[in-house]
UniProtKB/TrEMBL annotation:
It comes from Rotaria sordida. Keywords: Membrane, Signal, Transmembrane, Transmembrane helix. Residues 1-15 form the signal peptide. This is Uncharacterized protein. Its main location: membrane. InterPro entries: GH (IPR017853), RNase_K (IPR026770). Belongs to the RNase K family. It is a multi-pass membrane protein. It is found in: Membrane.
């Protein structure tokens, strides 16, 4: 057989990733000459029948090559496999394109289902797919093949059903097509460093799935249109991407996400400007003290006024959860306006009494008896008791314009999984899911509203690529589960944060308590937060919202303020805290049992990068080398004692001990680059950072670090609130660990720390 071999040349990478395509339409992807993915069938289900290359009911008629150019992703070469589908006397030409990109390290697979609509009287199950292209065997190639995978699955950005394992035919890679998401494949021998493939849908995120089909001996990953979709329109194309990185799991996922964002022109503009992401806020959702619960003898209006006026914290917004609007059939929302028993004077009056503090408000699935269906176009599902705005009229704009008038700045769309899965129209109409979310997003754009996704499946996160106003998403289960049962972690968002962040969404940990015991809460007398500081630090380092939900008398002000500047601006690292590659690889190696929560993140100020290492719930000891967190060598210190610093380099790695960093404690270290002056004794110094905050070095606080030409003086410039006192810790080889209290100028809110071989001072 003649083999047509296409070599992918990756710019800036001398690694070798190839796709080989043969005359029969088979294709293999190799990494460094090792087979990683081998194709299985191409197939289409229509007229209640499968047409497949496996039994020649789908016949390959031509193989052609072409070149092209994409405005966002550059040039490509592609091979087109043309198939003939003969059904019911009509012949449909199906085109399967395999595209090799020249400047991004990816292959994309596009299936054009031809110029006839493909309909079904008897649909397949929603967990299956009704088109298959591409498909790959899930297999261990030979005895030396030690590869692992993990995948995002389930609600909260793929958090609740995430899993990992060995890449072999008996592994369950995808449990549910509807709930599944991107699959990350890596080399266990390299412990999750180096070679990584990310496999994900590349278009029509609400209408397509990755599924797993098991045959007697084989196990196959198949991509295509959700099985229950009743009709595929003429000339419909859907696509999937196989993205390669040589930079390990974390970086590989980030690179894949950057490519996805580039493909859809997504920018981080709205994320960076979202008030609810940048500033401290107050939350009342499931885990908050005032979730379906008010102060004794007060209604909700009085309770919220007390929260705003009595808790001495710089809240910039208040979130109102599902307790404030009208519900109908099946507890769906019937009318999204304030109930008189909750806010007797209405939201506009409440907003005014709250000195116009911005509001964030929750919404859920629409009930079958929603009042809005009288005026606007809704898809209805009497069986499930739900409804959905079709989005071809002014529904969303009217809703958001009205909400703007009572102070809404953030619309929280919750129950996304239920509205998608437990609702017939979104399962059978190929366009409806996308149309619903896009029309919501378009109205948000027109009314300058931001959107938070909650209970979102990976497909909703991917859909947000096309919805610039979705700025963040929940990446954890409800906080209440952790309050009721401490052994159920809820703060462990090191995996799900990777997906949200890659797509350009800030990960949101959810509400938190800053005090362990809060009598009178709605969660029972035994409810407890065993480690409040872990909650605050995770929320702060997530880069997403920080939203305490303490009872009025229970907020620990000092503890919460470790998140923020005096005025409530959150001091953040540059990227979310995520699980380090080694721990992800071990999660797969130990057949899906997580070995601990060992995370890292970083901040860069003028090309100088500072790292943070976090550990909790460790099940085994680890030795962390700088390269494992993408760091250079430097100086390391534990958050609770800046007086003791140590060298962190390849000969002085960090020991992370399971008995010390256990499920009821936290370990946290900061790593700073160590610099040297050009003085006779070569004085060394390092910026350890802001002692009183979780993010010791943040871009919000440090605007620049410069050295003079002679390398005898360094100037560190800070910004803050006028007259704010900021304790800055430095390491200095002559003066040892030194703290200077910097007072921010009353004029411009700035200050400079000046470091020389003999002294450190702030001006
Ligand atoms: C893919 O790999 C399999 C197993 O090595 C081989 O039999 C097949 O010919 C290869 N196909 C292509 C297109 O390279
Ligand atoms: C196939 O053709 C027959 C006869 O023309 C028609 O009755 C039937 O509805 C067609 N089936 C589909 C699925 O279009
Ligand atoms: C294959 O496609 C090419 C280009 O479209 C065309 O020239 C050629 O005739 C086709 N071959 C067959 C067997 O259809
Ligand atoms: C793309 O096609 C052009 C023309 O056929 C060829 O010169 C080039 O090498 C191809 N590029 C790749 C990456 O295969
Ligand atoms: C599908 O595409 C073909 C070729 O571009 C075109 O002739 C045809 O009208 C299209 N069909 C529909 C229903 O849009
Ligand atoms: C995994 O990495 C090891 C070490 O680099 C290498 O020898 C092996 O071939 C790789 N395996 C695969 C499947 O690429
Ligand atoms: C396949 O992987 C699973 C875990 O994903 C593991 O339990 C099983 O032992 C592996 N089987 C083989 C043959 O390696
Ligand atoms: C992205 O922007 C480019 C150039 O402005 C445009 O050509 C392209 O259609 C846009 N792509 C998407 C998916 O919006
Ligand atoms: C919106 O779609 C519905 C259902 O398809 C249709 O009945 C209605 O006329 C459409 N409205 C507008 C304004 O296009
Ligand atoms: C911590 O682990 C110990 C031992 O496995 C267990 O008994 C305890 O319940 C765990 N505590 C939490 C909060 O998970
Ligand atoms: C800095 O301020 C803190 C609290 O305001 C004080 O406890 C500490 O002694 C001061 N440190 C120095 C070096 O002035």
């Amino acid at each position: 057989m003649r083999l047509v071999v296409f070599l992918l040349v990756i710019v800036g990478c001398w690694c070798d990733v190839r796709i080989l395509i043969d005359e029969d339409g088979g294709y293999n992807i190799t990494v460094n000459n090792q087979l990683w993915l081998r194709s299985s069938r191409t197939a289409i289900y229509t007229d209640t029948q499968w047409y497949s290359t496996e039994d020649n009911s789908l016949i390959l008629t031509n193989v052609t090559v072409a070149e092209g150019d994409d405005p966002n992703l550059g040039s490509w070469n592609q091979t087109t496999l043309t198939y003939d589908l003969v059904s019911n006397q009509t012949s449909t030409s199906i085109s399967a394109h395999i595209r090799q990109w020249n400047i991004i390290s990816a292959f994309t697979f596009h299936l054009e289902t031809g110029d006839n609509a493909l309909t079904d009287r008897i649909a397949l199950d929603m967990e299956q797919v009704r088109t298959v292209f591409p498909s790959f065997y899930i297999e261990k190639i030979d005895m030396n093949d030690q590869r692992g995978f993990f995948t995002f699955e389930g609600l909260m950005s793929g958090e609740t059903g995430k899993h990992a394992g060995n890449w072999n035919a008996s592994s369950r890679v995808i449990n549910s097509g509807m709930q599944g998401g991107p699959v990350v494949l890596f080399n266990l021998t390299q412990r999750g460093e180096d070679d990584v493939l990310v496999l994900s849908p590349f278009s029509h995120f609400m209408a397509t799935s990755l599924t797993q089909r098991n045959k007697i001996l084989d196990s196959i990953l198949e991509y295509g249109i959700i099985g229950s979709m009743s009709s595929i329109p003429a000339n419909y194309t859907h696509s999937m991407i196989v993205f390669y990185s040589q930079n390990g799991i974390n970086e590989g996922i980030r690179e894949w996400g950057e490519t996805m964002q580039r493909a859809f022109n997504r920018t981080n503009e709205n994320r960076l400007n979202d008030l609810t992401i940048n500033y401290l806020g107050y939350y009342t959702d499931n885990g908050g003290y005032y979730y379906y619960h008010t102060e004794d003898g007060m209604n909700y209006e009085e309770t919220m006024l007390n929260v705003a006026h009595k808790i001495p914290l710089p809240f910039h917004y208040i979130q109102l959860d599902s307790w404030w609007y009208f519900k109908g059939i099946g507890n769906g929302v019937s009318q999204w306006t304030a109930r008189p028993d909750v806010f007797p004077d209405g939201l506009a009056v409440l907003h005014r009494r709250l000195e116009n503090i911005p509001l964030a408000a929750h919404n859920r699935y629409w009930s079958y008896d929603t009042v809005y269906k009288q005026k606007y176009a809704f898809a209805l599902d009497p069986g499930n008791g739900k409804a959905l705005p079709i989005g071809n009229d002014s529904f969303w704009i009217d809703l958001f314009v009205e909400a703007r008038n009572w102070g809404l700045v953030l619309y929280e769309q919750d129950w996304l999984n239920v509205q998608t899965i437990d609702f017939l129209p979104t399962r059978v109409d190929i366009n409806l899911g996308e149309q619903w979310l896009m029309s919501m997003g378009e109205a948000a754009k027109q009314t300058e509203m931001n959107i938070q996704y909650c209970m979102s499946l990976p497909r909703h996160i991917l859909q947000a690529l096309q919805i610039p106003r979705v700025t963040h998403a929940r990446v954890s289960d409800d906080y209440a589960v952790h309050l009721k049962d401490s052994t159920r972690s809820q703060w462990n968002i090191g995996i799900s944060s990777m997906l949200a962040d890659a797509i350009g969404l800030a990960p949101f940990k959810d509400v938190l308590w800053s005090t362990s015991l809060q009598p009178g809460s709605p969660y029972g007398t035994s409810s407890k937060e065993i480690l409040p500081e872990r909650e605050i630090l995770i929320a702060t380092l997530s880069t997403g919202p920080v939203g305490p939900g303490d009872g009025i008398d229970y907020a620990n002000i000092q503890s919460i303020m470790k998140c923020c500047r005096r005025d409530g601006l959150i001091l953040k690292p540059d990227r979310p805290l995520t699980t380090i590659n080694t721990l992800v690889a071990d999660w797969a190696f130990y057949n899906g049992v997580i070995q601990g929560e060992l995370y890292s993140t970083q901040t860069t100020i003028n090309d100088r990068t500072f790292h943070i290492i976090f550990a909790s719930a460790m099940k085994r000891d680890y030795t962390v080398y700088p390269s494992m967190i993408g760091s250079e060598s430097g100086i390391i210190w534990s958050y609770d004692n800046a007086q003791i610093t140590a060298i962190f380099d390849d000969t002085h790695p960090l020991d992370v001990l399971a008995n010390k960093c256990n499920n009821e404690t936290i370990c946290l270290w900061y790593v700073s680059p160590l610099w040297q002056f050009n003085d006779p004794i070569r004085t060394k110094y390092a910026l350890l950072g802001e002692w009183s905050k979780w993010t010791a070095v943040s871009q919000q606080r440090f605007t620049s670090i410069t050295t003079n030409k002679e390398k005898t003086q360094a100037i560190i410039t800070l910004q803050g609130v006028a007259s704010e006192i900021v304790p800055i810790v430095l390491f200095h080889s002559t003066l040892h660990t030194i703290t200077v209290n910097c007072s921010m100028s009353t004029e411009d809110g700035q200050a400079n720390v000046i470091v020389t071989p003999t002294h450190v001072m702030c001006s």
